[in-house]
Amino acid sequence: MSAEVLVIGGGPAGISAALELARAGLRVTLCEQGPRLGGAIHRQPDDPARPLRVPRAQKRRWHSLSAELAASNIEILCRHIFAGIEGSGAVLLEDRVNARLVTRRPAALVLALGAVERVTPIPGWQLPGVITAGGLQMMLKATGAAPAGDILLAGSGPLLVAVAAQLAALGKPPIAVLERSTSPVSLPVIANLLRAPAYLWEAAGYLLTLARSGLRPRHAIIRAIAPTAEGRLSVTIATHAGLQQTLVVDRVALHDGLLPNGNGTASTPNGPFTVRAGDCREILGGVAAIADGRLAARAVLAHLGQAAPADNAPATILARERQAQSALNTLYDYAGTDPAQLPDDTVICRCEGRTLGQLRALLASGDPVSAREIKLNGRFGMGACQGRFCAEFVTSFVASQRGGEAPHVSEIVGTRWPVKPVPIAAFVTLPPSSPPE
User: Fold this and answer.
1) How far apart are CA 198 and CA 139, in angstroms?
2) Considering only CA atoms, which of 280, 364, 287, 297 is closest in space to residue 328?
3) Contact predicate 371/412, CB 8 Å
4) How many domains does the chain have?
């Protein structure tokens, strides 16, 4: 019997890797934490009568992947959460269908975990009604309906325009879209984007939808968010020219780009051969994820001593998409919020309610501060999100105060299992002869 390969993540990268491995004759198990495959990019409402409109090219790619997957013999496990790799090398999965923890010992592991959102702390971002733009998009895709009330989108990145257009298509355009970046559109940027015209067509479609709603993005930033007596949100915004305005809304959706989702996923000496694919390796988008999944699968085949396809198509696609993403990164290049402009009572760690003033006090001694001190003494990164939201800002702030010296983000987030919180009851189902280490 051929070796088993475990693929974690049912988005474009994971499905593409699984298909490439299955074509080579390997036994493949594809695990997805959600109720169905597709990842964030291909998520659709639970009610099929309320589908969200998506770009045609994106729809074609999904139909191609799902059709080949349906015809394959790949084992698919939905509602299975990757919990990590324990000391003996076993891969732990939380089976949320049967409320148990299961172990697998594959010959190789492909991690296709996607991306996480980056949100820069601002005063009031911890208030009820303030969410991420990606979280709002998940809500739209899960329900097929826009939430009630006035919505403001702010931050930086193309996702803001995409979510705004999806809201407008549902008859509920946001009251404003605030883009932080003011980077000019240069000829090199245009040239790189023209190499991947799908981005331009997609953006044009979104902007046309917004224009029909009488909306266009504005260059401005949020200074602070405060609650009103009526239970709404008072948002102070400022243009780059220094003009200030106050907007009163019901929801604020923040977004400052994407980061690879690699929290806690370090490999262990006794674990399987592990390779990453898609946005959890490099933020390049859905088209590149499919190509990167194939390349990850070929790395697995090479490790197992099996022949792999020799065509250069995936690498060519990846190079093209990397150039396009580089152009987008230039367009949305911004320095982020200057911590010197933030008041001490700005919440940095939303889980534990820890503030910028408390972080400053922790650094006041002048001595080097380790990740252990930041976590145990400062309580930053100790909450339920395990540092996913605050660790990057904390380390960058420490570096800015200490001449570049700071712990790495992974030291705060941690590299030990479980990658995500697992119910204690799930451990009861593990065989007593092989407890996790």
Assistant:
1) 25
2) 287
3) yes
4) 3
> The tokens of 63 are what?
């139909």
Q: CA-CA distance, 74 to 205, in Å (whole number)?
A: 36
Domain hosting 24: range is 4-114+261-306
CA distances from 82 to 28, 87, 299 (A): 16, 15, 21
First to last CA, the chain: 29
- Kindly report, residue by residue over 41-80, the tens digit of the pLDDT: 888 777 766 777 788 888 999 999 999 999 999 999 999 9
User: For residue 303, how many other CB atoms are within 10 A of its CB?
Assistant: 14
Contact 334, 181 (CB under 8 A): yes
Does any domain span residue 227? yes
Tell me what pLDDT residue 253 has: 98
Instruction: Determine phi and psi for 94, rounding to 5 degrees.
Output: -90, 110
What's the CA gap between 248 and 227, in Å, rounded? 9
Segment 282-327, tens digit of pLDDT: 999 999 999 999 999 999 999 999 999 989 999 999 999 999 999 9
The predicted pLDDT at position 331 comes to 87
Side chain identity, residue 341: Q
